[in-house]
Amino acid sequence: MTEAVKAMRSTIEGFPARNVVVVGDLILDEYLFGKPARISREAPVLILRFAERQVFLGGAANAAHNAHALGARVIPIGAIGPDDAGEELVALFGSAGISTDGIVTERGRTTPVKTRIMAGGYQATRQQVVRLDREPAGEPQPTTEDALLERLTALGPRAAAIVISDYGYGTVTPRIFEHVKTIARRVNAVVSVDSRYQMPRFTGVTAATPNEAELEQLAGVPADDERAVEKAGRQVLERLDARLLLVTRGSRGMALLERDGATTFIPIHGTDEIADVTGAGDTVISTFTLALASGATPLQAATLANVAGGIVVMKRGTATVAPSELRQAISLHDS
Fold first, then answer.
1. 72-85 pLDDT, tens per residue?
2. How far apart are the first and last CA of the chain?
3. Do 171 and 25 contact (CB within 8 A), yes or no?
4. What is the per-residue pLDDT across 109-119, written as a single tens digit (0 to 9) for each?
5. Are 20 and 163 in contact (CB under 8 A)?
6. CA separation (Å) from 51 to 78, 123, 250?
């Protein structure tokens, strides 16, 4: 066993000692499974015979679930609606053993739900046919924002790391983000951000984890090879005033850019025969952030995140990675 693997295994052993707060958009991932029956007479579409329904923690809730699965003590902070989806989210957190003390219920708000219609025979691979999203109208109401700030004030100072998981549903308002940074400075916590649409406003964080397409959009230039990724990444690092940038590149692995250091390209872990990328970004940011908060070097943390991402994309649906899986994979990764 090399020193690098020993160090990463030591990092994993330290996960249970860390408190992580995840602030963001709590989403219910719903899967409806059906077996193809026939073509409809009403339109040239496939009729599916309903088989089963499954629900999972999605968005910021999935990021929290991933950190929890790795052993950390996790508190999600976010808003839900007084609806069935909100109740299911709370129940899923409860069954996983994750605290719901940071969750605020807002009257009149819709809990975000991503419904995936999956088609396939019982012995065949089920394929996603269409996705239907139910979304809240906008940012939380001022009273909800105040309640979220109160939760953050009470729960944030215990955190070794704060993950911002922004899916564009308005939970992480400018006031909430500024409060996150204030608390993090006070307690010297790692702050990481994954934002689908508003990354430029999340400045002054420890780390950001865009994918390659998001990097291109942020930099305004193509990032189709390593040289271009480094050039665009350096530009984005400066723009965000971040210390680290971890760019996920799909089948090409990852790129780690350190503000005061090198750029390292990390090849994909495992095979590129991917089963499902749903929620993989949540796994990456949770693992990367938790590892940084546990004393790993940026490269060690990025390597662990890369391995975790490689494991989770081989699982169908929204999934997590266990410490035992991570330990085994880094040992194989080193051999």
1. 999 999 999 999 99
2. 8
3. yes
4. 999 999 999 99
5. yes
6. 32, 13, 32
14 in Cβ contact with 327 (< 8 Å): no
Catalytic member of 25, 29, 194, 282: 282
Tokens describing residue 147: 């309640």
Check if the beta carbon of residue 9 is closer than 8 Å to that of residue 326. Answer: no
Q: Which amino acid is at 134?
A: R
- Phi and psi at 178, nearest 5°, equal -60, -35
Closest by alpha carbon to 212, among 114, 154, 281, 132?
A: 281
Both tokens assigned to 332: 């194989």
Tell me, yes or no, if 282 is annotated catalytic: yes
Partners of residue 255 on adjacent β-strands: 247, 265
Domains of the chain (ranges; CATH) run 3-28+59-112+138-334 (3.40.1190.20)
H or E segment at 54? strand 46-59
